[in-house]
Amino acid sequence: MREVLIVVYDGVQSLDVTGPAEVFDGAARLRPGGYRVRLASPDGRAVTTSSGLRLGVHTALAAAGPVDTLVVAGGPPSDISSDGDLVAGVRTAASAARRVTSVCTGAFVLAAAGLLEGRRATTHWAYCDRLAAVHPGVAVAPDAIWVRDGPVVTSAGVTAGVDLALALVEEDHGAAVAREIARWLVVFMQRPGGQSQFSRRARTRPVRREALRALLDHIAAEPAADLSVEAMAARLSMSPRHFSRVFADQVGVSPGRYVEEVRVEAARCLLESGDDGVDTVARLSGFGSAETMRRAFLRHVGVPPAAYRDRFRTTARPVAPRPDPAGG
Questions:
Q1: pLDDT one-digit tens code per residue, 63-87
Q2: Which residues are catalytic?
Q3: DSSP letter for each residue of 223-252
Q4: How far apart are CA 226 and CA 228, in angstroms?
Q5: CA-based, 20 to 30 A from 169: which of 9, 161, 202, 217?
Q6: What is the distance between the alpha carbons of residues 215 and 232, in angstroms, rounded to a whole number?
């Protein structure tokens, strides 16, 4: 029997808890005696999730005893990483666990407990920069769905906890068991692409030069324009070399990379909201060819344009027409 302890607290994200719990429960059904899942809060009391659900718990964190797998669910990063009782309880429980994991922003608790120092880790795409800034000793992998570094495994946001749990079940019981659970839950065994397909491109940091701000507005408004380094440098009356240095210093990335990111963002909007073909989308967003756009999507989004459209265009499914009783 493998003991799985999921750490919860007031404000926890309910899917961070129930997603992994359902995976481990599915494994226990297929492999009787495989796992026992328990919930623990710092004081042993029931908790209220961020959506208002009440969760009963089995034990106080300090009284949980040795466990096989410790899972720290996510919640508000600032609140949970500054909760001394929660951080101390996780640090103690981790010392008696075979492996330690986190879902979503639960990584902030692991980092505050010193468990991610010198390790690779990930968290929800919206908080990767914050994790890296607050804990510079952590090598943050912003596009990963989950990351293993020794006995510590961290996952991306919310539903990525299911991916994490499936990977752990596969490690313990093999791919066939994990695949059967994935089928039952109607999820990917291994989802295609990374986190970037779900996130919006990060906002550009403020720039000081008014002319450069105007150029950034022009890039966003006209992604299909001539945005070569030479053309953009000419707009600012600079040499291409000097322009490239100024741009990278103030914006934080090279001009070429910035333009490509903007064009990918423009293409994403067109794919999500319109019916234009891939060739037309490539032209309107400034890529020139579908193949150039495909390569850019693979670099920045992790999936090709057609797959991105299929995934994010709509949640509707076509309904087969009812047969005509008259045979017409």
A1: 999 999 999 999 999 999 999 999 9
A2: 104
A3: TTS---HHHHHHHTT--HHHHHHHHHHHHS
A4: 6
A5: 9
A6: 8
Parallel/antiparallel/unpaired status of strands 152-155 and 97-102: parallel
Which residues lie below 8 Å from residue 28, measured CB to CB, with a gap of 6+?
A: 34, 35, 36, 37
Q: How far is CA 138 from CA 78, 120, 176, 319, in A?
A: 17, 6, 34, 48
pLDDT at 323 over 60: no
**Cα-flanking dihedrals φ and ψ of residue 132, to 5°?**
-65, -35
Residue of 239, 241, 296 whose CA lies nearest to 267: 296
| CA angle (218, 222, 223) in 5-degree steps | 110
CA distance 286 to 227: 9
User: If you average pLDDT over residues 265-282, what whole number do you get?
Assistant: 90
**Residues ≥6 apart with Cβ < 8 Å to 326:** none
CB 11 within 8 A of CB 49: yes
Hunting for tokens 């440098």 — which residue is that? 233
Span 278-322, pLDDT tens digits: 999 999 999 999 999 999 999 988 899 999 888 877 655 444 444
Contact, 121 vs 139, CB < 8 A? yes
Q: Which two structure tokens, joined as six digits, stand for 9? A: 């607290």
